[in-house]
Structures are given as structure tokens and as C-alpha cells.
């Protein structure tokens, strides 16, 4: 590997631009006027630790027509990500060592981001019988995050047992909080908009009731809990309450729940259909504040590719889910940095450091300092760009941000000193 100097970056957006020299994948020197065999002119870009996504749907195995480990890795690299956690709701489900090892191996072969498979909590995601968590943890994939995402682990006894197992494995359960008895047939956030449009409601309490129950269970068992895609102001209240009492709970929010709300549903365009649903303006505002305060720990994309035929259909038949990997940073800049809720240190915290800690990754979310891995996202804070789903690396194109002009552009991504994305191209 040749030596590299990245010229003119501002670590965490602080101070005057400096040069970073990289040797053997590690930051060897930070200073002025550095030189090496290869040079990359970063033109004043903000340097951040590479982003970590705790919640990505890669669709391999089973729906390779919508995304693969390779195409999802390309999207991740272009979005500034250096590690992603791949959800288990594939076909077959990642509820055993064979499937998680396949996803892990494909991630290594592609080599653009560290792909960490998430194992299912229950066999087939059916909520009835615990999957072999220990075997998945002991496999080559070294699974440390378990989730039935797409489905809620609704049975409290199964959830309790799962928390007991993951405590012993030093792992964490990422819960899709949705009380299924309260969301039968649900199509949109239960509120004025859904009532006017004639869509069956998905009430906030269906999320909040499970989050409250799981916080109590986690505390009772002494286990860690992670809450996926927090979407309501009420869930923020529950999380604050639980954290104040010392419960080991962490939580993520998606870019789309930070920026969008159910006022977009008027045209019945299924690109806006997602689980949990887009809520109200006041919910989005509460989520932004909670992310700034740390009550919500991090941003996770819930990148959920879907084929055109599963989205370009009537609302009730469409699948829920939205792309997120290539727009996450820009949506965080729009919703958090521009209004002054987070500075670049804060962006590093919510997009890299906290998710790395929650997922148990020791090589990601590291400080930008000599001796640390050169695993970085370089961001032009002044650039703006227009979202075009068709241009994304993902096979699917279901972005709710289509046509929006967004701030902040990833100019390069490095994984252990190697460019995985540069000037909008992979590698
Ligand atoms: N978020 C979604 O609307 N869909 C996800 C599942 C999930 O995250 O619950 C999917 O797999 O498509
Ligand atoms: Zn989910
Ligand atoms: Zn998901």
C-alpha cells in the first residue's frame, strides 16, 4: 500500500485546514505541508470518522433484484459509511449461522464497508421460538446485534428470554417496537391526515407501549436494549424516563423521521409509506431535539430498498420502506446542523461514535488522531446537490427525497486508509 496525504481537511470542522498522512491504513501524522506518494486534495472538507449504520436492509439472500451486499455496500461507501449492520429479514431469514456467515463473507469479498450481519431473535421472525443466538454469536460473523426487524418481538416472555441470552453473550437486541394487536391493517400514522385520507391508523401508542415494556424488561433482566427507528414524541418521553432511572437503553432515529411528516401523504404516493409511519410535525421536532440532547443516541438509516412493482402500486398494496444510505448525511445537515442543533462533533457522535459503541465495533467511530485507523468520511459542508434516485448505487430507487436540493456532500470515504468512494464514484 502506498503512502497517502489528504491535503486540506478540517477534522470535526474545527480550526484551520491540516494535512493527514496515512501509512498502512493508519493515521501516521497530522500537520501542515505533509507529503507522500499519493495526494488527495480535500479542499477544506470536514473530516469525520466513517459513518456506522446500525440498520440497513441489504436484501441478500432472497431479493437480489432490489439490493445485494455489493450494491448496498457501494451505496454505503458513497454515503460516507464504513460499516453497516445488515438486518435479518432476508429470504431465507438470517436466523442461523449459515446465512449470517454468507452475508459476512460477501461483505468481505466486496470489501467496501465492514458488513456486520444482524441475527434474527426468533426462528423465521415468527416471534414464537428463539433462534440459535449463541451459534450465530460464535460463528465467523461474530453476531452481536439481534433483531426481528420488520416484525416486533411481541411476546413478553420471548423478549425476556432473548434479553437474558443476549446479556450472557454481551450482545444487544434491536427492537422494532410495534404492538401488532394495535396495528392490524394499519396504513398510516393514526391522526387527522389518515382520517381525512381514509387510511387505517398506526397509533403512536403501539410504539410507545412496547418501548415502555421493553425498558422495564431490560431493567429487570439487567440487559441492554436498543430501540429501532423511534418515531414519536411519546417514545422520547419514555426513553428519557428510562435513561434517568439507569436503564441500559439506546435508541436510533431515521433521517426520514427527522425531516418528513404525514403532510406528504395527500397524493397517496407509496414512496412515503414506511414503518413506523411518518408522524406529525411536532413528533419530528421532538425527535430532532432528542437527538441533540442525546436521549436518542444515533441516526440509523433503515435503508429499505423495494422493487418498482412493490412501490408503484396502490397505497395499501405497496411495501413500506425507503432508501437512506446516500442521503443520510445531507438530511442530518439539513435537520440538525443548519438549525444549530448539532455541530460537526455532534454529527461524528450520532453517525459514527455512538452507533459503533452500540454495535460493539472497536475499529470504527475512533478519534481522528495519530495511530488511529484512517477510516474516514470527508464532507464538503458548502456543496448542495439534487437527489435523483435513479443515480443511486442501489438497485432500487425508492427515495422520498427525490428532487430535493440538499446540503452537504460526501467527497470521499476511506476504510483503513483505502478510498472506497471518491468524488461521487466508488473506489
Ligand atoms: N422500515 C420499513 O418500512 N420496512 C423495512 C422493515 C422495517 O424496518 O420494519 C423493510 O424491510 O422493508
Ligand atoms: Zn422496523
Ligand atoms: Zn428496518
Please give a structural write-up:
With 427 residues, this protein is α/β, with parallel strands linked by helices. The protein is built from twelve helices and 18 strands. Helix content is 30%, strand content 23%. The strands form four sheets. The protein has an eight-stranded mixed beta sheet. β17 and β18 form a beta hairpin. α4 crosses α6 and α6 runs parallel beside α7. The chain is globular, with a radius of gyration of 20 Å. The protein starts with a strand and ends with a strand. The model has no long low-confidence stretch (mean pLDDT 98). N-carbamoyl-L-aspartate (NCD) binds next to loops. One of its GO terms (molecular function) is dihydroorotase activity. It catalyses: (S)-dihydroorotate + H2O = N-carbamoyl-L-aspartate + H(+). Its cofactor is Zn(2+).
Write the layout of secondary structure elements.
Blueprint: E1 4-11, E2 18-23, E3 26-31, E4 38-49, E5 51-56, H1 69-78, E6 81-86, H2 97-110, E7 114-117, H3 133-138, E8 145-146, H4 156-168, E9 172-175, E10 188-189, H5 192-197, E11 201-202, H6 204-221, E12 225-227, H7 233-244, E13 249-253, H8 255-259, H9 281-293, E14 298-299, H10 308-311, H11 328-337, H12 344-359, E15 376-386, E16 405-415, E17 418-422, E18 425-426
Parallel strand pairs: 1-4, 5-6, 6-7, 8-9, 9-12, 10-11, 12-13, 13-14
Antiparallel strand pairs: 1-2, 2-3, 4-15, 15-16, 16-17, 17-18
Helix pairs in contact: 4-6, 6-7
Residues 57, 89, 149-150, 176, 274-275, 302, 304, 320-321 line the site of N-carbamoyl-L-aspartate.
Amino acid at each position: 500500500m502506498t503512502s497517502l496525504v489528504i491535503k486540506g481537511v478540517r477534522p470535526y470542522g474545527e480550526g484551520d485546514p491540516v494535512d493527514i498522512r496515512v501509512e498502512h491504513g493508519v493515521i501516521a501524522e497530522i500537520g501542515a505541508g505533509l507529503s507522500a506518494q499519493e495526494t488527495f486534495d480535500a479542499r477544506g472538507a470536514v473530516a469525520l470518522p466513517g459513518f456506522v449504520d446500525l440498520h440497513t436492509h441489504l436484501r441478500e439472500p432472497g431479493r437480489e433484484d432490489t439490493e445485494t451486499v455489493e450494491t448496498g455496500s457501494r451505496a454505503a461507501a458513497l454515503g460516507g459509511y464504513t460499516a453497516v449492520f445488515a438486518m435479518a429479514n432476508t429470504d431465507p431469514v438470517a436466523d442461523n449461522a449459515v446465512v449470517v456467515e454468507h452475508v459476512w463473507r460477501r461483505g468481505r469479498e466486496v470489501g467496501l464497508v465492514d458488513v456486520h450481519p444482524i441475527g434474527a431473535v426468533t426462528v423465521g421472525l415468527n416471534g414464537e421460538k428463539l433462534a440459535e443466538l449463541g451459534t450465530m454469536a460464535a460463528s465467523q460473523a461474530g453476531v452481536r446485534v439481534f433483531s426481528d426487524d420488520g416484525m416486533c418481538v411481541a411476546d413478553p416472555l420471548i423478549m425476556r428470554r432473548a434479553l437474558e441470552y443476549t446479556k450472557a453473550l454481551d450482545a444487544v437486541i434491536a427492537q422494532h417496537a410495534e404492538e401488532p394487536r394495535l396495528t392490524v391493517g394499519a396504513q398510516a400514522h393514526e391522526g387527522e391526515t389518515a382520517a381525512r385520507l381514509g387510511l387505517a391508523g398506526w397509533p403512536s401508542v403501539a410504539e410507545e407501549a412496547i418501548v415502555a415494556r421493553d425498558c422495564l424488561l431490560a431493567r429487570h433482566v439487567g440487559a441492554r436494549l436498543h430501540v429501532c427507528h423511534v418515531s414519536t414524541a411519546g417514545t422520547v418521553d419514555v426513553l428519557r424516563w428510562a435513561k434517568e432511572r439507569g436503564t441500559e437503553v439506546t435508541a436510533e432515529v431515521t433521517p426520514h423521521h427527522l425531516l418528513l411528516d404525514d403532510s406528504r401523504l395527500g397524493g397517496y404516493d407509496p414512496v412515503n409509506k414506511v414503518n413506523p409511519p411518518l408522524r406529525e410535525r411536532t413528533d419530528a421536532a421532538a425527535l430532532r431535539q432528542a437527538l441533540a440532547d442525546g436521549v436518542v443516541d444515533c441516526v440509523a438509516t433503515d435503508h429499505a430498498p423495494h422493487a418498482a412493482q412493490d412501490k408503484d402500486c396502490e397505497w395499501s398494496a405497496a411495501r413500506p420502506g425507503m432508501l437512506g444510505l446516500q442521503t443520510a448525511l445531507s438530511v442530518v445537515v439539513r435537520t440538525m446542523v443548519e438549525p444549530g442543533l448539532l455541530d460537526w462533533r455532534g454529527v461524528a457522535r450520532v453517525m459514527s461514535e455512538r452507533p459503533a459503541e452500540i454495535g460493539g465495533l472497536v475499529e470504527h467511530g475512533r478519534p481522528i488522531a495519530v495511530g488511529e485507523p484512517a477510516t474516514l468520511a470527508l464532507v464538503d459542508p458548502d456543496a448542495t446537490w439534487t437527489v435523483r434516485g435513479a443515480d443511486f448505487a442501489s438497485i432500487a430507487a425508492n427515495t422520498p427525497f427525490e428532487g430535493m436540493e440538499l446540503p452537504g456532500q460526501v467527497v470521499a470515504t476511506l476504510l483503513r486508509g483505502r478510498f472506497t468512494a471518491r468524488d461521487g464514484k466508488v473506489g
